[in-house]
Protein backbone atom coordinates (compact mmCIF):
# COMPACT_ATOMS: atom_id res chain seq x y z
CA UNK A 1 0.00 0.00 0.00
CA UNK A 2 1.29 3.41 -0.96
CA UNK A 3 0.72 5.68 2.02
CA UNK A 4 1.43 8.71 -0.08
CA UNK A 5 -1.56 7.99 -2.33
CA UNK A 6 -3.70 7.21 0.70
CA UNK A 7 -2.84 10.51 2.33
CA UNK A 8 -3.46 12.32 -0.92
CA UNK A 9 -6.87 10.67 -1.23
CA UNK A 10 -7.73 11.60 2.33
CA UNK A 11 -6.69 15.19 1.71
CA UNK A 12 -8.91 15.33 -1.36
CA UNK A 13 -11.88 13.96 0.58
CA UNK A 14 -11.32 16.49 3.34
CA UNK A 15 -11.15 19.30 0.80
CA UNK A 16 -14.36 18.14 -0.86
CA UNK A 17 -16.08 17.89 2.53
CA UNK A 18 -14.96 21.41 3.44
CA UNK A 19 -16.13 22.70 0.07
CA UNK A 20 -19.50 21.04 0.45
CA UNK A 21 -19.88 22.33 4.00
CA UNK A 22 -19.05 25.81 2.78
CA UNK A 23 -21.59 25.54 -0.05
CA UNK A 24 -24.23 24.29 2.40
CA UNK A 25 -23.54 27.01 4.97
CA UNK A 26 -25.79 29.69 3.45
CA UNK A 27 -28.64 27.25 2.96
CA UNK A 28 -28.29 25.81 6.46
CA UNK A 29 -28.42 29.30 7.98
CA UNK A 30 -31.73 29.87 6.23
CA UNK A 31 -32.96 26.45 7.36
CA UNK A 32 -32.19 27.37 10.97
CA UNK A 33 -34.12 30.63 10.58
CA UNK A 34 -37.03 28.71 9.08
CA UNK A 35 -36.96 26.16 11.94
CA UNK A 36 -37.01 28.99 14.51
CA UNK A 37 -39.85 30.76 12.73
CA UNK A 38 -41.72 27.44 12.50
CA UNK A 39 -41.48 26.99 16.28
CA UNK A 40 -42.83 30.50 16.82
CA UNK A 41 -45.62 29.77 14.35
CA UNK A 42 -46.70 26.72 16.37
CA UNK A 43 -46.61 28.73 19.58
CA UNK A 44 -48.64 31.53 17.98
CA UNK A 45 -51.30 29.06 16.79
CA UNK A 46 -51.72 27.75 20.34
CA UNK A 47 -51.73 31.30 21.73
CA UNK A 48 -54.48 32.40 19.35
CA UNK A 49 -56.62 29.45 20.42
CA UNK A 50 -56.43 30.55 24.07
CA UNK A 51 -59.66 32.44 24.84
CA UNK A 52 -58.13 33.93 28.01
CA UNK A 53 -55.05 35.38 26.33
CA UNK A 54 -56.21 39.00 26.87
CA UNK A 55 -57.19 38.58 30.50
CA UNK A 56 -55.13 40.25 33.19
CA UNK A 57 -52.95 37.50 34.56
CA UNK A 58 -49.35 36.84 35.46
CA UNK A 59 -47.14 36.83 32.37
CA UNK A 60 -49.93 38.02 30.04
CA UNK A 61 -47.99 41.14 29.09
CA UNK A 62 -44.90 39.12 28.16
CA UNK A 63 -46.96 36.72 26.08
CA UNK A 64 -48.55 39.65 24.26
CA UNK A 65 -45.15 41.04 23.33
CA UNK A 66 -43.94 37.61 22.23
CA UNK A 67 -47.05 37.24 20.07
CA UNK A 68 -46.25 40.53 18.32
CA UNK A 69 -42.69 39.38 17.59
CA UNK A 70 -43.93 35.98 16.48
CA UNK A 71 -46.40 37.50 14.00
CA UNK A 72 -43.65 39.64 12.50
CA UNK A 73 -41.43 36.56 12.15
CA UNK A 74 -44.18 34.32 10.79
CA UNK A 75 -45.06 36.87 8.11
CA UNK A 76 -41.52 36.45 6.74
CA UNK A 77 -41.79 32.66 6.39
CA UNK A 78 -43.23 32.53 2.83
CA UNK A 79 -40.35 34.62 1.41
CA UNK A 80 -37.83 32.61 3.42
CA UNK A 81 -39.19 29.29 2.15
CA UNK A 82 -39.23 30.54 -1.45
CA UNK A 83 -35.59 31.61 -1.14
CA UNK A 84 -34.68 28.22 0.36
CA UNK A 85 -36.32 26.35 -2.50
CA UNK A 86 -34.49 28.38 -5.16
CA UNK A 87 -31.09 28.04 -3.50
CA UNK A 88 -31.56 24.34 -2.83
CA UNK A 89 -32.49 23.62 -6.43
CA UNK A 90 -29.48 25.58 -7.64
CA UNK A 91 -27.22 23.67 -5.25
CA UNK A 92 -28.59 20.29 -6.35
CA UNK A 93 -28.17 21.14 -10.05
CA UNK A 94 -24.59 22.20 -9.46
CA UNK A 95 -23.64 19.26 -7.22
CA UNK A 96 -25.76 16.66 -9.02
CA UNK A 97 -27.02 15.37 -5.70
CA UNK A 98 -29.91 15.78 -3.28
CA UNK A 99 -29.59 18.28 -0.44
CA UNK A 100 -30.42 16.39 2.77
CA UNK A 101 -31.51 17.90 6.06
CA UNK A 102 -31.72 15.40 8.94
CA UNK A 103 -31.55 12.67 6.28
CA UNK A 104 -34.65 14.12 4.56
CA UNK A 105 -34.57 15.89 1.14
CA UNK A 106 -34.87 19.59 1.93
CA UNK A 107 -36.97 20.36 -1.15
CA UNK A 108 -39.53 17.71 -0.18
CA UNK A 109 -39.64 19.19 3.33
CA UNK A 110 -40.28 22.70 1.99
CA UNK A 111 -42.98 21.50 -0.39
CA UNK A 112 -44.70 19.64 2.42
CA UNK A 113 -44.62 22.73 4.60
CA UNK A 114 -46.09 24.90 1.82
CA UNK A 115 -48.93 22.42 1.30
CA UNK A 116 -49.69 22.34 5.03
CA UNK A 117 -49.66 26.14 5.20
CA UNK A 118 -52.06 26.44 2.26
CA UNK A 119 -54.47 23.97 3.86
CA UNK A 120 -54.43 25.91 7.12
CA UNK A 121 -55.02 29.19 5.28
CA UNK A 122 -57.98 27.70 3.38
CA UNK A 123 -59.41 26.35 6.64
CA UNK A 124 -59.03 29.77 8.24
CA UNK A 125 -60.83 31.47 5.34
CA UNK A 126 -63.60 28.87 5.47
CA UNK A 127 -64.13 29.52 9.19
CA UNK A 128 -64.26 33.26 8.54
CA UNK A 129 -66.88 32.78 5.80
CA UNK A 130 -68.95 30.53 8.06
CA UNK A 131 -68.72 33.14 10.82
CA UNK A 132 -69.90 35.92 8.49
CA UNK A 133 -72.79 33.75 7.27
CA UNK A 134 -73.81 32.97 10.85
CA UNK A 135 -73.68 36.66 11.78
CA UNK A 136 -75.81 37.64 8.77
CA UNK A 137 -78.37 34.96 9.68
CA UNK A 138 -78.58 36.36 13.21
CA UNK A 139 -79.20 39.86 11.82
CA UNK A 140 -81.95 38.58 9.50
CA UNK A 141 -83.57 36.64 12.34
CA UNK A 142 -83.48 39.70 14.59
CA UNK A 143 -85.09 41.86 11.90
CA UNK A 144 -87.82 39.27 11.28
CA UNK A 145 -88.58 39.16 15.01
CA UNK A 146 -88.81 42.95 15.12
CA UNK A 147 -91.28 43.00 12.22
CA UNK A 148 -93.46 40.24 13.67
CA UNK A 149 -93.47 41.62 17.24
CA UNK A 150 -97.07 42.22 18.57
CA UNK A 151 -98.45 45.75 18.97
CA UNK A 152 -96.95 47.47 21.99
CA UNK A 153 -98.60 49.89 24.39
CA UNK A 154 -97.31 52.85 22.38
CA UNK A 155 -99.00 51.51 19.26
CA UNK A 156 -102.24 50.88 21.14
CA UNK A 157 -102.13 54.41 22.50
CA UNK A 158 -101.70 55.72 18.97
CA UNK A 159 -104.70 53.69 17.79
CA UNK A 160 -106.83 54.94 20.67
CA UNK A 161 -105.95 58.53 19.91
CA UNK A 162 -107.67 58.21 16.52
CA UNK A 163 -111.14 57.76 18.13
CA UNK A 164 -110.61 59.49 21.45
CA UNK A 165 -108.44 62.01 23.19
CA UNK A 166 -104.69 61.79 23.21
CA UNK A 167 -101.88 63.46 25.04
CA UNK A 168 -98.99 65.17 23.40
CA UNK A 169 -95.32 64.93 24.43
CA UNK A 170 -95.85 67.49 27.20
CA UNK A 171 -98.69 65.48 28.77
CA UNK A 172 -101.46 68.02 27.86
CA UNK A 173 -104.68 66.41 26.71
CA UNK A 174 -105.60 67.20 23.11
CA UNK A 175 -109.12 66.88 21.80
CA UNK A 176 -109.90 64.73 18.86
CA UNK A 177 -111.54 66.04 15.72
CA UNK A 178 -114.85 64.29 16.60
CA UNK A 179 -115.04 66.03 19.98
CA UNK A 180 -114.28 69.42 18.50
CA UNK A 181 -117.10 68.94 16.00
CA UNK A 182 -119.49 67.81 18.75
CA UNK A 183 -118.64 70.90 20.85
CA UNK A 184 -119.23 73.23 17.93
CA UNK A 185 -122.61 71.64 17.07
CA UNK A 186 -123.85 71.62 20.71
CA UNK A 187 -125.25 75.23 20.74
CA UNK A 188 -127.30 74.53 17.63
CA UNK A 189 -128.76 71.37 19.19
CA UNK A 190 -129.69 73.29 22.38
CA UNK A 191 -131.35 76.10 20.44
CA UNK A 192 -133.35 73.60 18.43
CA UNK A 193 -134.54 71.85 21.62
CA UNK A 194 -135.61 75.19 23.16
CA UNK A 195 -137.61 76.17 20.08
CA UNK A 196 -139.41 72.84 20.08
CA UNK A 197 -140.38 73.27 23.76
CA UNK A 198 -141.75 76.77 23.10
CA UNK A 199 -143.87 75.55 20.19
CA UNK A 200 -145.19 72.68 22.31
CA UNK A 201 -146.18 75.00 25.19
CA UNK A 202 -148.00 77.36 22.81
CA UNK A 203 -149.94 74.48 21.33
CA UNK A 204 -150.85 73.27 24.81
CA UNK A 205 -152.17 76.71 25.82
CA UNK A 206 -154.09 77.10 22.61
CA UNK A 207 -155.58 73.66 22.91
CA UNK A 208 -156.53 74.43 26.50
CA UNK A 209 -158.37 77.63 25.44
CA UNK A 210 -160.30 75.85 22.73
CA UNK A 211 -161.54 73.02 24.94
CA UNK A 212 -164.40 74.90 26.86
CA UNK A 213 -165.90 76.34 23.71
CA UNK A 214 -166.10 72.95 22.19
CA UNK A 215 -167.78 71.38 25.23
CA UNK A 216 -170.40 74.14 25.53
Automatic annotation (TrEMBL):
Gene3D superfamilies reported for this sequence: 1.20.58.1520
Annotated region described as Disordered, given as residue ranges: 152-216
Superkingdom assignment: Eukaryota
A Pfam family hit: MAP65_ASE1
Coiled-coil ranges from the UniProt annotation: 106-137
Subcellular location: Cytoplasm, Cytoskeleton
Biological process terms in GO annotation: microtubule cytoskeleton organization
GO MF term (any one): microtubule binding
Compositional bias segments (type: Polar residues): 167-176
Family: Belongs to the MAP65/ASE1 family.
Protein name per the record: 65-kDa microtubule-associated protein 8
Amino acid sequence: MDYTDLLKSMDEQIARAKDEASSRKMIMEKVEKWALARDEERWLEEYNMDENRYTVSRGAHKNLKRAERARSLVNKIPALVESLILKTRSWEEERKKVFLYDEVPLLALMEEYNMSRREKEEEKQRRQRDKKIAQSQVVVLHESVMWTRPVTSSHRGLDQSIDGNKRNSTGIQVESSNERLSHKSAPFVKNENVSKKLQRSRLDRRFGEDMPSTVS
